[in-house]
Amino acid sequence: MSSTADSFKAAFRHHPSGVAVITLDSTTGPVALTASSVFSVSAEPPMLVFSVAKMASASQPLHESSDIVVHLISVDQIDLAKLCAQRGADRFAGDVWTWSRYETGEPFFDAPAVRLRCRVTERVEAGASTLIVGEVLDIYISDDADAQAPLVYHDREWHRLDDGSVL
Amino acid sequence: MSSTADSFKAAFRHHPSGVAVITLDSTTGPVALTASSVFSVSAEPPMLVFSVAKMASASQPLHESSDIVVHLISVDQIDLAKLCAQRGADRFAGDVWTWSRYETGEPFFDAPAVRLRCRVTERVEAGASTLIVGEVLDIYISDDADAQAPLVYHDREWHRLDDGSVL
User: Considering only alpha carbons, which residue of chain A is nearest residue B155?
Assistant: First the structure.
């Protein structure tokens, strides 16, 4: 069939993804978004990419600031992923999901077991979204990262990977 | 910790992904690669992105040809994904994984339930890889696509999503 927005969305409902939360500063304070569109591009130099919809509230800050933090999200932080995907929610109220700042200033959430501080090196306009390419400057992996179950987003549902899902 | 290739790889071992197989023509016939780095970028116009390592055999063809097919892979086609990830294997011997061509010429595998014929609109060099941005021209979704279990790649293992993994 020819490609329409509907058939395109139907096709990608068959494509699972990992989940990430991205934080950065804006002119009005820290902002955060949830992305199911993050992948590693290159290990040497370490680079990653994700996309942000132009209509997302984080789009403009991502065009203005190059200092970002990418958190890889496990099942334990599913509610953080939902919070940062929710339009208009205050992600930094700090009552449940506490946050801190790097010495270099970038805001980050304390809970996720893996996070990567990045410098945006390229922005590529692509249809209704922008591809953000980042070089990774600093990596944090908590001691209990391996004990956390990976989270997968698929067709508007969330899944846990564990011994029961392995092939 | 500071970012090294090793810590970067360790970080992304915590990031699951869907699986895709990409086919296209080269000067020596059809080529195929498996990618765990595909995501949808924009629904209107329909666009997707993936990355290919510069040292991959499909890298040069992807710089020379703009007509590609992206197959989204289910558990039923796990062996096709493994075949297309295997260095030096003949992906198009056709003894198990039969293939065809669109009227417009692009080679594709018959088995996957979802495939998207694309025109490459942009190539972005990023470290040791190239980001390939494609506009989707044509979409195929088989009648039994919903019945096929989604496949996830995570930390060098393969997982199946089903009712048992849903949260």
Answer: A150
Nearest residue on chain A to B133, alpha-carbon basis: A126
Mutate to test the interface with A, among B73, B143, B161 (most CBs of A within 10 A): B161
pTM of the predicted structure, to 2 decimals: 0.96
Does residue B161 or residue B4 have the better pLDDT? Answer: B161
CB-side neighbour CA atoms (13 Å) of A57: 20
Q: Do A128 and B39 touch (CB under 8 A)?
A: no
Dihedral of the alpha carbons of A150, A152, A158, A162, in degrees to the nearest 10: -40
Domain membership flag for residue A95: yes
Question: Who's near A146: CB < 8 A, 6+ residues apart?
Answer: none
Give the ipTM: 0.95
Q: Is residue B38 part of a domain?
A: yes
Q: How many contacts, defined by CB atoms under 8 Å, are there between A and B? A: 247
Residue of B nearest to A44 (CA): B5
Q: Residue A85's domain is classified under what CATH number?
A: 2.30.110.10
Distance in angstroms (rounded) separating the CA atoms of residues A92 and A106: 13
**Residue B164 falls inside a structural domain:** no
Chain B CB contacts of A148 under 8 Å are 14
Residue B5 lies in a domain: no
State the pLDDT at residue A3: 77
